[in-house]
From TrEMBL:
GO terms for molecular function: ribonuclease P activity; tRNA binding. Gene3D superfamilies: 3.30.230.10. SUPFAM superfamilies: Ribosomal protein S5 domain 2-like (SSF54211). Keywords: Endonuclease, Hydrolase, Nuclease, RNA-binding, tRNA processing. GO terms for biological process: tRNA processing. This is Ribonuclease P protein component.
Length: 96
């Protein structure tokens, strides 16, 4: 995963950014990273739960063979469910 942060392609805009890198495997792997603006573990865990659910729901749209890090700020969890999903799908359209 360290290589993902060194050599990557950045997509999206705050409050959600994706870092992606080819891994050459027959599946995609994900890393969920709430940033330091999340002051408590409760807020970080909530953001990770939301991201995991979005990935599960739209897994068929995500290409295989990539490592993906999803970076979110605390404003992401404050968005409405529809806005979060719209932001997720807009970033997914930029996927290589």
């Amino acid at each position: 995963m360290q290589e993902l942060f060194r050599q990557n392609r950045k997509m999206g805009r705050p409050p959600m950014r994706w870092l992606v890198r080819k891994n050459g495997l027959p599946f995609a792997s994900f890393l969920f990273c709430p940033d330091k603006t999340h002051k408590t573990a409760v807020l970080r865990n909530r953001s990770k739960r939301i991201l995991r659910e979005l990935v599960r729901k739209h897994l068929s749209l995500i290409p295989v063979g990539y490592d993906c890090a999803l970076l979110v700020q605390k404003e992401f969890a404050k968005l409405s469910k529809e806005d979060r999903e719209g932001l997720f799908l807009s970033v997914l359209k930029q996927f290589p």
